Amino acid sequence: MAANKEFFYRKLHSLLGVIPIGIFLIQHLVVNHFATKGPEAFNEASRFMGNLPFRYALEIFIIFLPILSHAIYGLYIAFTAKNNVNNYGYFRNWMFLLQRISGVVTLIFISWHVWETRIQAALGAEVNYEMMANILHSPAMLVFYIIGILSTVFHFANGLWSFGISWGLTVTPRSQRISTYVTLGIFVALAFVGVRAVLAFV
Prior knowledge:
Blueprint: H1 2-18, H2 21-33, H3 39-50, H4 55-80, H5 91-122, H6 129-135, H7 139-166, H8 173-200
């Protein structure tokens, strides 16, 4: 019975990481990428997202609650998992370890980012190009954001590989090998979009 519950929780954890969190991540990176077209393009895209109908309900039920649930169970996995890279230094063992580390880094980054943007917006600040430019004016924050973005997109892309196995989509060694290349491509593409967007604010 306990094993069945663990299996269910891991599948749900994996699903939440892709839908809706992964979809939101991609959408967020695309909106941020408008900064490469200039301040007005970013501000217009940001205003569009801010004026979506039922915005608060969407934020609570599609973004914050799934992220919170994924994060809590992810921390449980991170601190109870037995990493064996010292004894078995295979590629996937390293990916397993990096998934746990990137999850913790991503949680710290997202928490800080929400504090600097969403919480400040609730307190009356406007989330616009100028806000992000002021945040990233500090070299330390710029490095922090780049590390945070790389960690986040790695965690998502590598999580897609695990998702394929958890949901029975990639069960053969060949399909898992192909999935490795596909998810690596996704990581590179999203990392390019995310880092390019951050540098556009500098």
